[in-house]
Design goal:
- The chain has one helix at 27-31; strands spanning 2-5, 8-11, 23-24, 35-41, 48-60, 74-75, 78-83, 85-91, 94-97, 109-110, 122-127, 134-137, 140-145, 156-161, 164-168.
- The protein is mainly beta.
- The strands form 5 sheets. A 4-stranded mixed beta sheet has the order 2-7-5-4, with no helix packed on it. A 3-stranded mixed beta sheet has the order 3-1-6, with no helix packed on it. Strands 10-8-14 form a 3-stranded mixed beta sheet, with no helix packed on it.
Length: 192
Amino acid sequence: ISIHPVRVEKPYDGLPLYPVNRISGFEAFEKLGYTYEVSISGSQTDFGYGESKIDSILIRDPSNKDITDEITLRLSTGIIHVYYSEIYAKSDTLTTTYDAKPLDLSGHVSFPKGLSLMPGHSIVVTSTAKTTVGDQINSYNITVKDANNNDVTSYYKISRSFGTLHIQPRSITMQAGSAEKPYDGTALTSQA
């Protein structure tokens, strides 16, 4: 069973953020009546990400029997996130004609709840949508950079929603060349 501490996050308030004693990856077993007791450590005070880790765990079956030693557990770390502000981003629904070029979505992503960035920070929006014909999610990534062009995205909680991207086929016109000649038994060819 692969388990890890649940993600915890909060806006910066100068106080440490600690993990909660809950795990992810055990939900299916809980539905069957299994329970656990867990101790998790870690903390994060400044902007950015920290790690939480499982120090100890006890697993009980539905009859309350300790079965911890009978289960193979793969323990991963969890995430502790302290952020400056939350960025809500939304991509537009767009219709465009196929041209095989990367899409520039910088003007097509909005921030409906406004932006609260630290001084000197700016947002970079890059499209991750494929440029193939058809309908797809108008996907994008958001990166926040400081005045020295360092990535400070971890200082923010980013929530994204996506519009639809409709890429229509490009119409092309093909025209065959014309040629004529008197019959001489050889093939007639034309160069357009």
